[in-house]
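Journal club prep — side note

Before the paper discussion, L.F. wants everyone to see what a predicted structure for a comparable chain looks like in token form. Sequence:
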Amino acid sequence: MLYLKNIKTIDNQGQLYPMEVIIQSDEITYLGQNLSQLMTSDCQLIDGQGGLLVPGLIDVHVHLREPGGEHKETIASGSRAAARGGYTTICAMPNLNPVPDNKATLASIYNSIQSDAVIDVRQYATLTKELTSETELVDYQALSEKGAFAFTNDGVGVQTAGTMYEAMLAAAQVRKPVVAHTEDNSLLYNGVMHQGDKNEHLQLPGMLALTESTQIARDVLLAEQTGVHYHVCHISSKESVRVIREAKKAGIRVTCEVSPHHLLLNDASIQNDDANFKMNPPLRSEADRLALLEGLLDGTIDMIATDHAPHASEEKSKGFIESPFGITGIETAFQLLYTYLVKEGYCTLSQLVSWMSVRPSEIFDLPLGKIQVGGLANLAIFAIDEKTLNDKNDFLSKSNNSPFIDWEIYGETIATIYQGKIVYQR
């Protein structure tokens, strides 16, 4: 039994109020105040230190790198890093080696998850064999039966409309979402950062925003035809927001996510050839950043997902041209967004919790995202009144390729509880 006291949570009006919680096994059994009389001799007390209690965060877009990239991250290190960030459920992308495009590989990954993960890790399967867009489709029925969370070729865009159409039909048959990294290779022109004034100043090849938005425009019409749940990864441009907004108005079953770095940074944030600012899609203009924030606030964008993409330090030390795309993000996403969006008045705390827990749960049909008696005890406590420094030496990830190192942040994680067990405590 766990007894949580000295905590506060958010009511339906967005107001904070004191709360105590008793957990037995993996379930919340009591919510209220002054619950100490219900403690038993074997009860473990957790002092929340006046922190904020929220449902465990859910991230539908992370890279754990195992198998094939264990020098960057592993299931063990990535899940511990997620727990430090307040996450209790994460969904791992399939750009691995070997890729989970068959039952045996997917089963092997789940065996590793079962033995090594400290939280709930759900694995994506690929849309096509070998994660390429011009080859045969995977066996959607077999992979669904083996536990595939959804289907995606994240890391590469599906270049052929016919391939995406067939993939959507197959996914719709097994009632699984198609999750898309949208990128038209014919519009890339070897770009490594956003096409604008900044890339010209740094003399680096630019990436057109059209490479993302044109594939979304194609895909929403395919989704309308097939009836599949189509979810767009890490949108970054105002054009993408506009296309998705119009698709939703038309009744098309499309959802999407935005990453913290696209909400907090723009291409002007890049001061030099520092690959810790290199990600795909890239940081775009201030107009794009503001459009993303507007899209979150008006419901066009459904949720926030980190796209946690760890790389070893030596890999990210080679500048924009030679370094791989991607940054870490899962350990401090809530803290950064609370500090620079909520505290700055751009959104409410209730909205942030919804985007990071409630909405992912609703959209992907997970029985999570709530604090209620009888519900699963997946919870996080954040010290929202305390200021700390984002110190890379505190990271539990194997990598620290982040543009947010040494930023001041509020909301350090006090504790994370997964299925009634403490999986992180500061």
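L.F.'s comment for the group: The two ends are 20 Å apart (CA to CA). Keep this in mind when we get to the figures.
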